[in-house]
């Protein structure tokens, strides 16, 4: 016998959805999370980012309001006050996730879980066994091999800034880079957005991407395509950023943000102890099953489609298939997505 019918590693959107759905079928479920409940979306992604989008939009709305009869007033933004309010909301949502799990009968364990063998996990200072195991550990930000790249922040650190930078260089013209460019410009930062490809938002509709690019330029954001960073050097004012490509120039900025994508977070899981196949991502079939018949994986760690609603759908489909005897396959052909730029 095993300690649990299902043990989930990672309490992000996919893991939480799977745990709650599985518990509805009457099985004994536990979920382990080494950081905060809610995963990247609640703590380092969708939620804090969208709150920043809302906050930064008020400056433009106030300027537009003058044309509708509102009197001009002095604009002052208190970053520290915003951070306090934002973090309070994130903490509330963390508790919402935990309470939802507990209400469903799922045991929430705030510890790191790693594989000891195919059915055994080290969870904190103890070991537990499970008949079936779901891996839902999400992804991590990645950086390219550039001289001085260790000085660049990733999107994770952007949510922990002590103060807003006066000037920032953002490397990466995907949705993360474009969103932060819009947000920080709204806060009054001088933004230079760099992308090694010939256009922004590669993979999105070309006409919409071109419209966003034009809008960024019109608003005063310097968006440079076919241009990347050659070197980052510390200087008294912040960092000297040497560019190469179509625009070969040098910038001096307070902060550099690297927004060049994300990859599965597989470090230290001990997948080799369980015999789970994974190179750059965990390999799964249409039913999220790994090469081990009782071990499954959903969400960003499988690198299928890195979106919160997709991870949730994969988690629910897994539970329905394995515990509800209702085989479900997630289809990825028509999945809507949004970019929180200005315009969106």
TrEMBL record:
One of the protein's GO biological processes: cellular response to oxidative stress
Gene Ontology MF annotations: flavin adenine dinucleotide binding; glutathione-disulfide reductase (NADPH) activity
Stored InterPro entries: FAD/NAD-bd_sf, FAD/NAD-binding_dom, GSHR/TRXR-like, Pyr_OxRdtase_I_AS
Matches recorded under PROSITE patterns: PYRIDINE_REDOX_1 (PS00076)
Keywords (A to Z) from UniProt: Disulfide bond, FAD, Flavoprotein, Oxidoreductase, Redox-active center
EC number: 1.8.1.7
Keyword Magnesium: no
Top-level taxon of origin: Bacteria
Gene Ontology terms: cellular component: cytosol
Cofactor: FAD
Domain FAD/NAD(P)-binding: 4-315
Transmembrane segments annotated in the record for this chain: none
Listed PANTHER family: GLUTATHIONE REDUCTASE
Similarity remark: Belongs to the class-I pyridine nucleotide-disulfide oxidoreductase family.
Name of the protein described by the UniProt record: Glutathione reductase
């Amino acid at each position: 016998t095993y300690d649990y019918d299902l043990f989930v590693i990672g309490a992000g959107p996919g893991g939480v959805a799977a745990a709650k759905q599985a518990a509805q079928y009457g099985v004994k479920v536990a979920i382990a999370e080494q950081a905060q409940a809610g995963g990247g979306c609640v703590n380092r992604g969708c939620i804090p980012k969208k709150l920043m989008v809302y906050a930064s939009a008020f400056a433009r709305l106030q300027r537009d309001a003058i044309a509708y009869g509102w009197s001009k007033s002095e604009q002052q933004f208190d970053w520290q006050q915003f951070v306090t309010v934002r973090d309070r909301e994130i903490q509330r949502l963390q508790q919402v996730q935990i309470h939802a799990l507990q209400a469903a009968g799922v045991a929430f364990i705030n510890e790191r879980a790693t594989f000891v063998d195919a059915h055994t996990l080290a969870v904190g200072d103890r070991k537990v066994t499970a008949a079936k195991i779901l891996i839902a550990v999400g992804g991590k930000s990645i950086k390219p091999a550039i001289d001085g790249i260790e000085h660049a922040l990733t999107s994770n650190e952007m949510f922990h800034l002590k103060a807003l930078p006066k000037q920032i260089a953002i490397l990466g013209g995907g949705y993360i880079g474009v969103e932060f460019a819009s947000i920080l410009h709204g806060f009054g930062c001088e933004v230079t957005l760099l992308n090694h490809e010939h256009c922004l938002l590669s993979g999105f509709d070309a006409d919409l991407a071109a419209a966003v690019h034009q809008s960024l330029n019109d608003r005063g954001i310097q968006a440079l395509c076919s241009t990347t960073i050659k070197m980052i050097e510390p200087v008294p004012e912040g960092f000297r950023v040497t560019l190469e490509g179509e625009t070969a120039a040098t910038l001096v900025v307070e902060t550099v943000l690297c927004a060049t994508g994300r990859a599965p977070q597989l470090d230290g899981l001990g997948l080799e102890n369980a015999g789970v196949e994974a190179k750059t991502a965990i390999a799964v079939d249409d039913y999220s099953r790994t090469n081990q018949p009782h071990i499954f994986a959903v969400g960003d760690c499988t690198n299928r489609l890195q979106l919160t609603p997709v991870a949730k759908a994969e988690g629910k489909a897994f539970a329905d298939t394995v515990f509800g005897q209702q085989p479900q396959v997630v289809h990825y052909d028509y999945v809507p997505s949004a970019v929180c730029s200005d315009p969106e």
